[in-house]
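TA notes. Do not distribute before section.
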Amino acid sequence: MSEVITLEFSQKKCEIGFLIFIAAFSALFLHISFEYSEISRLIPVMACSATLALVVVRLVQIFMAKEEGKPVKISPKVALFALVLFVGYLGGTYLIGFTIATALFVALVMWFSDYKKPLLILCITVGYVALMYFLFVKVFSVSLPESLIGF
């Protein structure tokens, strides 16, 4: 029988790595948003700035904490699946549109996170997509990303 390979990290190191990834992604998006007109970059600048501020606050909290937390075991298969899911979401947004890609992404993440109740997944997915639509389109008057097929 073959042994399953897993990587083991402390919870603290995992969270720090994740926060650094989020900060880098936000900084990149913040940099890219300055190419837009002043009105178009308002929401991305606010969101990225808030994200970066929250990352800094959380990093300070982590470094001030005394305990390491439980070890986190990460299977390379799970990590690869998460990466494929994320890249699929980005590509799906471009190909089939934000609304459909987001609905599929939220549903798949919930399903593979062991939420196996279809009605719960449906309600949360529909609610999340409706909230995103309402916030961006109705409140902020920002159009959602368009796709190749026009959704």
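Switch to the second chain here.
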Amino acid sequence: MERRGDVMELRWADAEERLQGTLHPALPREGQPAMLSLHVGAFEGAEFTGPLTLTVHLKDSPAQVTKTLTRDGVNWHTELTFDEPGLYELEIRYQNTHLKVLTGYVTVAAQPLPPELSWGLLVLASGAALVWGVRGAMRRMKAPASPAGTPEAGTATASTTTLESSASTEERDSTVPPPDAASNR
């Protein structure tokens, strides 16, 4: 089994026949239908027209679904609906000159969020982003308009001035030698 785009391709061959098929979509989801199409071709002799038997079951689960498929034109078609997510085993049986049993595995994904819930979460997140953006813009517009005499502005200026004056005092003290006790007299 090999994934090609949105289709899972099934291929098998021996000296007498080949089986080819597709499963669409390649990554089926629980509760959603998937279409399986199969074709058996003979390398020699008469064309195979007999029925195919398909068995589908969740890996390591005793419950299984078995379908007998009849040929529809050139291929055999069936619609599969998987009940729960997990790894499913597909078993295809048919008999032309010998009994052939082919097994493949398909991973079924869980159902995504319902579209209504997804859209609701998207609208809620967009609304929150809009509110925060408007709130931030309003704060920026109010900040320059506040007068310099407000307590907040005065506190910031005073603390900056204090830091600058103490730093300049430290610089002066560190570069100038201490006054001599005798020179003060």
